[in-house]
Amino acid sequence: MAEQALNDLESVQEQWDQICSQLKNEVGDVAFDSWLKPLTPGTFSDGVMNVCVPTRFMRNWVVTHYSDRIHKIWGKKNPEIKSVNFIVQATQEDNYRPYHSGCGDLIKKITTSPSPATFYQSGINSLLANNNEFMANQDQSLSVPLNPQYTFDNFVVGKTNEFAYAAARKVAESRNVSFNPLFLYSGVGLGKTHLMHAIAWHIKQQDPSRNIVYLSAEKFMYKFVRALRYKDTTAFKEQFRSVDVLMVDDVQFMGGKDNTQEEFFYTFNSLIEEGRQIIISADKSPSDLEGIEARLKSRLACGLVADIHPTDFDLRIGILENKARQLGVELPEKVSEFLAQKITSNIRELEGALRRVIAHSQLLSDKEITLDMTQDVLKDMLRSFDKRTTIDEIQKKVAEYFNISVKEMQSSRRARTVARPRQIAMYLAKQLTSRSLPEIGRKFDRDHTTVMHAVRKVEELIVEDASLAESVDALRRALDA
Ligand code: ADP
Ligand code: MG
Fold first, then answer.
1. How far is ligand 2, taken at its centre, from the CA of residue 449, in Å?
2. For residue 79, with 0-12 CB atoms within 10 Å meaning exposed, 13-18 middle and 19 or more buried, which class applies?
3. Does domain 319-382 have CATH number 1.10.8.60?
C-alpha cells in the first residue's frame, strides 16, 4: 500500500509537506527557510527516496545536519522508504528574490510568502544563487549588499535595546577602534542585523574609502570551503588583508565546523592585532555558544558584549508608529495597541503583521484600517501564536504523563522516575520551542549543559528504547495539536 502511495506524486508531495511542517517546528523558521525549504521530493525506487537539493554546498550541509532526522520521520510515515538520498539538482524555485524594501512588493508578498523576507535570508540566498561552479569562480566579492532600510535613523531605541544601540553608535562613530570585537547577541528578529548594517552605512558615509565587509557566518564558511576545494586558501586569506571593518553575522552557525572555525580564529586574531574593527552577532552570548572552541569563545568575549532583550510594549508601539510613518500609512491607536499586545515574539513578526494589515487595506481599494479589520486579517496568524507550545505547558504535560508533579520535575531529585521525565521534557522543550538551552535550563533550575546532555541522552534512548520513543512521540503529538 505504501508503495502505491509513493507512486502517486501527490501523496509524495503530501508526505513531504507534513515532514516539512514537523521539521520547521523542530529546527525553527530561519534554519528551515535556509536549508530545508528549497528541497523538493524526487523519484522513488527500490526503497530509495530521492530528494533534490539546489546546490552541492547545501547538499553537504543537509546531509550532515538533517538527513538522519528526515530519514527517521519519513521512514516512520512510510516503512517502504529504506533510505533517503540527496541529489543536487537545480529547481525552478532557485530564483530567490532579493529582500523587500518597500511597499511595491506587498502584493507579491501576500501571495507568495506571508512572512517578511529578511536581509539575512537574502544573504544566504545570494550565496545559494551563486551555486554553479562557473559562477562561483567569478564571484570575487566578499561582502553581501547592505539593506538600505537598516540605518540608525530607522532604528527605534527603547529600554531593551538602548545599550546595544549605544555600543553600535560608538563603534560607528569612533575614529579609533573602541571595543574589539563588538559582540551583539539576542533572539531572532530583535535587530542585530539591522544594527550591523547601520554601523556599516554610517562608516561608509563618514569615509567611503574604508573597506567594510559584512557577511553571514554561513557565507564565510562557504567561501572558505570553496577556497579549500580550489586549493586556494592563500587567496582567501588575502581577501581579508585589506579589510578595515569585518562584520560576521550569526556566528552560532559556525558551530561544529572545525577547520572553518580555525580559519576564522586566525583571520580574527590577525585583524585584531592589526587594529581593525570586528563586529560579531550571534543568538547567544559567547560563553553559551554551542560547538565553538573555548579559545574562540574567550576571544569573542574579550571586547564588548551587548545583548538586546526581548521587546517591551513601549518599544513595540514605537516601532509600529515609525514603520507606519515610513510607509505613509495612518495607523489608529487602537490598532497599534492591539498589535503591540498580541505580537510580542519579535520585531520581524510585528512588522510582518503590520505589512499584512496594510497590504490588505490597500488591496481592497484603500479600505480603512480598523481594529475589526486587523483582527480579521490576522486571525490565522494569531491563532498560530496562541498555539505555540511553551515550556510550562511541556512540563505540565510530561509530568502528567509520567504521573509526577511539576515541582518534582524542577526539583534536584535524581531518581530515575523523576530524572527521565525531566530529560524528556527538556528534549521536547528544545524541539518544540525556539528557546535557547540556557533559557530552557532556567525553567528547570539547571544550567545549559544539563539540558544539552538531556537532549543527547533522549536522542540516544529514542533509538534504543522503543517504548520510550513511543512515549516521546505521543507527548509530541499531544503538545503539537
Ligand atoms: P536579527 O538580526 O536580530 O534577527 P533583524 O535585524 O533582522 O533581527 O531585525 C528584524 C526586523 O526588525 C528588521 O526588519 C529590522 O529592521 C526590524 N527591527 C529590529 N529592531 C528594530 C528597531 N529597534 N527599530 C526598528 N526596526 C527594527
Ligand atoms: Mg540577523
1. 25
2. exposed
3. yes
Q: Which atom of ligand 1 is nearest to the CA of 250?
A: 2
Using the predicted structure, report yes or no on whether residue 100 has a pLDDT greater than 60.
Answer: no
Q: From the CA of 168, how far away is ligand 2's center (Å)?
A: 15
Give the Å distance between the CA of 216 and the centre of ligand 2: 9
Mutate to test the pocket of ligand 1, among 347, 350, 354, 434 (most ligand atoms within 8 A of CB): 347
Distances (CA, A) of 184 to 35, 122, 133, 328: 24, 20, 34, 31
Domain with CATH 1.10.8.60 in the chain: 319-382
pLDDT category at 77 given cuts 50, 70, 90 is confident
Number of the ligand 1 atom closest to the C-alpha atom of 161: 23
Give the per-residue pLDDT at 132.
31
Q: Which architecture characterizes domain 389-480 according to CATH?
A: Orthogonal Bundle (1.10)
Half-sphere exposure of 70 toward its Cβ, with a 13 Å CA cutoff? 26
Q: Which atom of ligand 1 lies nearest, measured to the CA of 165?
A: 23
Q: Whose Cα sits closest to atom 9 in ligand 1?
A: 191
Residue 117's contacts (CB-CB under 8 Å, 6 or more residues apart) are 97, 99, 100, 109
Closest-CA residue, ligand 1 atom 26, reads 155
| CATH 3.30.300.180 in the chain, residue ranges | 9-88
- Among 163, 219, 170, 160, which Cα is nearest to 190's? 160
- Mean pLDDT across the stretch 338-364? 90
Which residue has the CA at smallest separation from atom 11 of ligand 1? 348
CB 255 within 8 A of CB 223: no
State yes or no: pLDDT of 410 exceeds 80.
Answer: yes
pLDDT digits (tens, 9 = 90+) for 142-179: 788 899 999 999 999 999 999 999 999 999 998 888 78
Compute the distance between CA of residue 220 and CA of residue 264 in angstroms, rounded to an integer.
8
Q: Return the C-alpha cell found at 341.
A: 499586545
* Atom number, ligand 1, closest to the C-alpha of residue 186: 3
Q: Which CATH fold topology does 131-308 show?
A: Rossmann fold (3.40.50)
9-88 fold = GMP Synthetase; Chain A, domain 3 (3.30.300)
